[in-house]
Amino acid sequence: MTKAAFLRPRSAPAGSMESFTGLLREWLPGQRWFAGKDRPVTDLHVLSMTELFPGCLHLLVHAGHGGVPSPGNTPWAGDCYQLLLGVREHPTPRLGRALIGRVQDGPLAGRTVYDALHDPRSAQLLLERLRYPGTTGPLHFECDAAQPGPGAGLVPRLLDAEQSNSSLVYGEEFILKVFRRIQPGVNPDLEVPGALSRQGCHRVPAPVAWLRTTHPFKATLGVLQPFLRDASDGWTLALDALAAGDDFTAQSYALGRATADVHLALASAFPVGGPGENGPTATAMTERLTAAAHSVPVLQPFVPGLKAAFAALALCDPGPAAQRIHGDLHLGQVLRAGRDWFVIDFEGEPSRPLSERRSAHSPLRDIAGMLRSFDYAARQRRPWRPEWARRCREAYCAGYAARSGWDPRKKHGLLRAYETDRAVYEVLYEARHRPDWLPVPMAAIERLAVRGD
Ligand SMILES: Nc1ncnc2c1ncn2[C@@H]1O[C@H](COP(=O)(O)OP(=O)(O)O)[C@@H](O)[C@H]1O
Ligand SMILES: O=P(O)(O)O[C@H]1O[C@H](CO)[C@@H](O[C@H]2O[C@H](CO)[C@@H](O)[C@H](O)[C@H]2O)[C@H](O)[C@H]1O
């Protein structure tokens, strides 16, 4: 590996990065993982730029939205994104949709830049870097020596999934998740699976190696873990079952048990204890609703009805103790391999502040996430299949109760508030990432606000 240079964009001559940042500003909003599709990108700054290896730059960039702060992200208004860019002297037609463009001026003048994760050579070199712990500028490559690591020469492929980040699969043996939207601090998707594997919890693939930065702030940038090669995710399995007219209750029941297993392991890996308190929960949910309705005006007519669900928390018992949870549980976060369900992606809801994602919450939040997911799946079919979703939800709760010793269905008021809060989050998520999907959570909003069930 050649010694990498750490380029300091802030010392570059004024204006010299203009064409480069202009290209990135145009390219970013078209990316699936870009979280600001509901607002124009008004400015883009390079926060750090490191030559990872010849022909590949690592960047953290800040995308601003005209001074409108993004909830929970960095101390400044806007979002920070991680990019790995290939830089070539001569463009090749094969770059296809990886192509970002040709830089007109500044230090990269005349070069073609592209998303290096699409480039097998860069993807291979990235894995090589993770195989040998060390640092490159502010970037730190680390590994868990207790876990079997990847061998040499594993062939990479970029996953083309509905994702909030980007993932590379190596030789069908390992998967590297490259986080896209970066917040300061340890990412729970590294912290939690590591702690659960030390607990002996077999339902979560353990981190093998990871990448973090120390500039312009400390943050986790990527995690490598074993790839469950014959696994299917719960979303695909649910849609297949719906298409075939199959029942999904046995799978849902097993999924409920698996969720309870993971909650039990989380409670012992991160002992926090203490009963949940409904007052602060209701306040936080109401604040999130107000902020979401401000960003997504179609929510506004439903605000009074939704607030009622949160106000009703005052009449509920506090429910199960707060603990570390998954934080963004849905059918796309569970993988079925053999007869077992595995749980992945402990990042939490990406738009929440990291400190909030790493604190204790009611396990009902995860349960509500999965219940909403059965509804999402049922709405992918015409005509809509509410009965299918209802049976899955019942079976999931029954499976959870059998393993945990308490039945989520008996916490009706709490569960309704958590489902409402989750549906509000989904509206915000869809508006920002996949505007075409907005009608799915909006249908739930209407149901929860108007009928309250
Ligand atoms: N350990 C794994 N084994 C097999 N497939 C995986 C594994 N981790 C992730 N995947 C696949 O990658 C997809 C995206 O992973 P996920 O962690 O949910 O990323 P994101 O945060 O970008 O949504 C999953 O839906 C799943 O299909
Ligand atoms: O990318 P992540 O998996 O971290 O989670 C985000 O994206 C999800 C979509 O990919 C989103 O989930 C929503 O859509 C799913 C169907 O695609 C559905 O099963 C979920 O129930 C629904 O919430 C998730 O909210 C978001 O955080």
Automatic annotation (TrEMBL):
Highest taxon listed in the record's lineage? Bacteria
Is the keyword Ubl conjugation in the record?
A: no
Q: Which keywords label this protein?
A: ATP-binding, Carbohydrate metabolism, Glycogen biosynthesis, Glycogen metabolism, Kinase, Nucleotide-binding, Transferase
Q: Which residues form the signal peptide?
A: none
Catalysed transformations (reactions): D-maltose + ATP = alpha-maltose 1-phosphate + ADP + H(+)
Record domain Maltokinase N-terminal cap: where: 27-119
Enzyme Commission number(s) = 2.7.1.175
Give the SUPFAM superfamilies listed for this entry.
Protein kinase-like (PK-like)
Residues forming coiled coils: none
The pathway is: Glycan biosynthesis; glycogen biosynthesis
> Which InterPro entries did the record assign?
Kinase-like_dom_sf, Mak_N_cap
Q: Which family does it belong to?
A: Belongs to the aminoglycoside phosphotransferase family.
Assembly and oligomerization: Monomer.
Q: What is this protein called?
A: Maltokinase
Q: Which organism is it from?
A: Streptomyces cathayae
